[in-house]
Design a protein that fits this description.
Elements: E1 4-10, H1 14-25, E2 32-38, H2 44-50, E3 58-62, H3 71-79, E4 84-87, E5 93-94, H4 99-105, E6 113-121, E7 129-131, H5 135-143, E8 160-163, H6 178-190, E9 194-204, H7 211-214, H8 218-232, H9 240-252, H10 258-264, H11 271-281, H12 285-288, H13 291-307
Parallel strand pairs: 1-2, 1-4, 2-3, 6-9
Antiparallel strand pairs: 4-8, 5-9, 6-7, 6-8
Helix pairs in contact: 9-11, 9-13
Pfam family, one: Glycos_transf_2
Domain Glycosyltransferase 2-like: 5-144
Protein name: Glycosyltransferase
Length: 308
């Protein structure tokens, strides 16, 4: 049994996949398998993998029919035989030849949830936007994991290493908040994590990413937000970071009437959200468009909520 299963959910993008496979080939740590689960409508991924079969221990699965994301992520994890799971998307790649070794070195911490700093890149030679976890956020997300709704300070799944004892799956009802929701459940279960303050993974930025469709799209954001409220309860908004995240979400989507909520999710919304929408509607546009004034308005709304 390998120590690490590198799980790659693939879909057509063979140029990106080749970049990832090349970065795996260069890794100094070698006790791994590469599990590729393929949603492609053609055999382009399979043909590429054949060129790596002599140099990488690849296990290939063709999804028929295609699973879509994040179901394909779950399929890959279910096929893994390693003690540790390293999910990495096909458009991301390891930053250094010892990236996997550094992940493995931190297994000794005893934590089952490990993640690293990362760099957002358009391509190998582009300027890197380096993403580090600020120290102030470590205790914050352990104390109240739902603060990840404000800022997903963990990052995409590609930056994580998980022990196979973690049985949580990615919620296949979600696409946009799916990784955040997964991390919330991990933190509620594990109550700790190991963070590596070193860029070990490059995260590819492209126009094909789900972000471009989902970001501030009420048809996506509101149903997934409602699902989070169902799963974790509206009492989480007593944390001001969670409250502020909802305030900014509704503000940026120009949600000012309850009817806008029910047009996307025709169910009873929590009172706190209904009142927040009313507070937003009572504010002039110039207040909501001015950062410091919007923050002050949010604070007043939050105090009203806490005082009942």
């Amino acid at each position: 049994m390998p120590l690490i299963s590198i799980c790659i959910p693939a879909y057509k993008r063979v140029d990106y996949l080749k970049r990832l496979l090349d970065s795996i080939t260069m890794q100094t740590f070698r006790d791994f398998e590469v599990v590729v689960t393929d949603d492609s409508p053609d055999d382009s991924v399979e043909q590429l993998l054949l060129t790596y079969s002599a140099i990488l221990p690849i296990v290939y699965f063709k999804n028929q029919p295609a699973k879509g994301t994040p179901a394909n992520w779950n399929v890959g994890i279910s096929k893994a035989k390693g003690e540790w799971i390293k999910l990495i998307h096909d458009d991301d790649w390891f930053a250094e030849e010892n990236s996997l070794q550094v992940f493995v070195n931190h297994i000794a911490t005893g934590k089952h949830f490990i993640f690293s700093a990362y760099a957002n890149r358009v391509n190998e030679k582009s300027h890197a936007q380096v993403m580090h976890l600020q120290h102030s956020w470590k205790k914050r997300i352990i104390k109240e994991p739902m603060t990840l709704l404000a800022y997903n300070v963990v990052g995409p799944p590609s930056v994580t290493l998980l022990h196979r004892s973690i049985t949580e799956q990615y919620d296949e009802r979600m696409k946009w908040r799916v990784d955040m929701d997964f991390y919330v459940r991990l933190l509620l279960q594990e109550k700790n994590f190991c963070y590596i303050d070193k860029v070990l993974v490059n995260v590819g930025i492209s126009e094909t990413q789900v972000t471009n469709y989902c970001f501030q799209n009420p048809a996506v954001e509101l149903p997934e937000g409602y699902l989070l409220l169902e799963k974790y309860g509206s009492q989480r908004l007593k944390n001001i970071w969670v409250y502020d995240a909802w305030w900014r979400l509704l503000r940026n989507m120009h949600i000012r009437q309850t009817a806008q909520l029910t047009s996307e999710v025709d169910k009873p919304w929590p009172t706190v959200i209904i009142k927040m929408v009313a507070d937003l509607n009572s504010m002039p546009d110039f207040v909501l468009k001015t950062g410091v004034l919007s923050k002050l308005a949010m604070g007043i709304s939050y105090i009203r909520f806490i005082l009942g």
